[in-house]
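Hi there, hope your week has been kind to you so far. Would you mind checking whether the tokens look sensible for this chain? I owe you a coffee for this, so here goes:
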Amino acid sequence: MASIPQIRGALLEEAILFLLEKIGYSIVEFDPNLSPEATGLNHGHSGLEVRGRGTWHQIDAIASFHYSPAFMYPLRLLVEAKCYQAGRPIGVDVVRNAVGVLKDITENYFTVPSRRGGDLQVVRYNYHSAIFSTSGFTSGAVEYSIAHQVFLIQYENVPIIQPLIDAIMTFDNHCVTIIGKRSMAGIRKLYRDALRDRISQTNTPHFLTKKGIALIDDSLVQTVRRIHGSYFGMLQGRWPLHLLTESPLPALAFESDNITCRLTGYETGEWKFTPLDIDRNDNGYFELQFNLPEAIANLISENWGDREAVANIKQQHFSYIDLSGVIGGVRRNVRLEMDRNWINQYLDRIRRT
């Protein structure tokens, strides 16, 4: 039985999938023309399912990356989002469940009969899992996720996405006529289509009140569309960040693949990376908004001297973020460099609040 918090999480997942598309991901959906035995995907009672070593797993949101690095299977990302009230961080139980599902799916090496006899191994994927939160994570959740390589993204105090979070939080019992798995799937599909200006073929309005339909068609669509820049970066090559901007990153700022940045947000806790050598009034100026769990920031600070973590840095006193996305209409991989003091300043501000 679905609940209002679960529907809110589903709406956030759809918004995240939309932002992932800006980076080069596409939504993985079940194709009824293909055999579940061949694809490892099925349309179960509650939606999309992925075949694991032990059983089938319901996965509401999966994104596939269009571009695969050499010597790697195609990348698929299992997306899970929680839109909780402020002050209610995600606990270790959510991460523990994600780890179990990811492990079972990753270990599924099934085959199908070949027309020429024998067995044929089905195309494999490099599966990863990411959990997105509007209210942060407990230290136990962070520690467990790091140990099992599940990525955590939090949106606390990120101004550009806050209007979306506020709109999702207004979705309540007055927005639906029926609460259940079918209604949640229909609401998810309606929002997915609305974001892409598609006419939905579902009977979702049957599950929604006028308030619910208006909320999806207006606030939930417009607040996501105002985020024109969506990029993912890996801090020190290990820690994921979702970097958001009001406007796409300007090509003028990235004539080189290495850009030195500064951190701002000490007074408000609304953190941004901005270019060090470009004035705010110049055309090449940008502000990348983000948030980082405190427990991860602590680990980065404590392990700064790790030789592996700094192996690819020209100057070891600089930290870096490898950023991937579309810049000036071209897919780019660039590096943002910051003085190591920024992580300590980040921690100092968090501890004072």
